[in-house]
Amino acid sequence: MSAEKPFSFNETPGKLPKELVPVEYTIRIVPNIDRFAFTGMETVKLSIRSPVRQLVLNALELEITEASVDDVALPKSAIKIDKEKELLTLALLSELKPGDHTLALRFEGKINEAGQGLFYMHYQEQASGATKLMLGTQFEATDARRFFPCWDEPAFRARFQLTTVVPENWLAVSNMPVESEKKIADGKEVRFAATPSMPSYLNVFVAGELDLIESRSGPTQIRVITTKGKAELGRYALEATAQILQYYNDYFGVPYPLPKLDQIALPGGFGGAMENWGGITYYESALLFDPKNSSAETKQNIYEVLAHEMAHQWFGDLVTMAWWDNLWLNEGFASWMGTKCTAYFNPQWEVWLRRESPRDPTRRVGIAKEAAMEGDARSTTHPIQQLIATEAEANSAFDDITYKKGQSFLRMLESFLGEDVFRDGIRRYIAAHEYSNSTTADLWSALSEASKKPVGEIAAGWTQQPGFPIIKVKREADGKVRLTQERFTVNFKNAPPLEWKIPLTYTVIGQAPATLLMTNKTDILKNIPADRALKLNVNG
């Protein structure tokens, strides 16, 4: 297995040339609800790193009507869109030298109902029963380019300042607080403060006839935003948000950096939730709780989803994977951290043992670890860290191996290193890479520094190769116990034999647990009394 390298912008995969980086976008979007379309304009401050004769960025289902560089208009013939590659190429009139430059674009796009880019939702308003419409966005993995032309790869972080026009009775929400509002002929113009440096896929825009409830957690304004008549159903989520935010501020050692955190309930458009920085979107059932009618299971699910998405505000948003092959670093960590936080505040739920409903009743799918193992034992599995050659492959990486095996491996690693040491490593990692990108190698480096153990060597087998081991145990003479590892499979003939470095916790009844790092196919435990029970995989 080849060792992964620490983050390097120049060596990060992707289609986009790296001779330049966007620094700040100033974007104005005007939706036309009647036509399910929008017009937009943007100015992008660019930092040119080496001379360029063309600008290449992402655009999809957008028509570029005007383009200029450093206030010099480009002819229509200089504007080319490759629909298949989702690239916009601007041929320059002259070479751009290294330094600061400005790109200005005008464009038009579509408002769809497919939950990609900017989309609309029809819903029945609870109070009046009237059919209403609202707008929302979903950009991960590669749909920010449907909303505005941008460098739509995770390593191209920048600041984003959004202005939009909406009907006067609508509430508009984005990543940052509203900076100003003013009445105009077509409604009101809402200007949001600029975000910190972040990848394009974390932008969010939601607008409609909305209600909200709010409170504060330290310096942070927290809100739950819903369609009219449902705000009070967000009370449980609001209280949980304050609790979780305080826990994460302490755990990560870096306080939540934005001035507000919105939890936004959408009545349709997409499923699940999305960790947009400062404005997390949820399907209503994942956020709203009715004390009179909702089940205890719904309450638990809401807490777990909140904890998962809020963990992303640090792991994914403040620090972002360099490329989609490290998606597990975002999702596996958020799953582990969210479950850890949920277990801390709600031990009665026993979330580490929680069983889930199998999608296929004929297959045994239980707790997260077992769900991952069930799929990982088959021929169709893949490594946690899989090769993502193109952005088009990114969406295929969102599966049980990424989320649940990733989470389970991190829990095993924390148990082996110790909670305090593991947390110290996480804090080092975030402090070193905040407002930037990272690879798995950067995380292993921080954990190795904190633990003085070869975390990268241990992790390689678990993240870079498929499957998992089963350990066979055999007592021998003179107090010895032989441990032998082999790959565990189900209906997978001729599976390639693999080996792992296995952190193993064991105890002899009546003695304190001990740990062993199993580095070979066979290892020996010594001084194990023959008349005492031996328990392996303690608390596993």
Helix amount, in percent?
Answer: 10-25%
Please indicate the percent range of residues in DSSP E strands (runs of 2 or more): 25-35%
**What's the overall geometry?**
globular
Q: What would you give as the CATH superfamily of the largest domain?
A: tricorn interacting facor f3 domain
The CATH class of the largest domain = Mainly Beta
**Count of separate structural domains:** 4
Q: Main β-sheet: number of strands, strand sense, barrel status?
A: 8 strands, mixed
Number of strands: 28
* Main sheet: strand order: 5-4-8-2-1-11-14-13
Low-confidence stretches: 357-367
Number of helices: 8
CATH structural architecture of the largest domain: Sandwich
CATH topology of the largest domain: Immunoglobulin-like
The radius of gyration is 25 Å
**By helix and strand content, what is the structural category?**
alpha+beta
Explain how this protein is built.
- The chain is α+β, with helices and mostly antiparallel strands and 540 residues long.
- It has four domains: 207 residues, tricorn interacting facor f3 domain (Immunoglobulin-like); 88 residues, Zincin-like (2-Layer Sandwich), CATH 3.30.2010; 146 residues, Neutral Protease Domain 2 (Neutral Protease, domain 2), CATH 1.10.390.10; 68 residues, Immunoglobulin-like (Sandwich).
- 22% of the residues lie in helices and 34% in strands.
- It is built from eight helices and 28 strands.
- It has an eight-stranded mixed β-sheet, with no helix packed on it.
- A hairpin with a 2-residue loop joins strand 16 and strand 17.
- The longest helix has 19 residues.
- About 2% of the residues have low confidence.
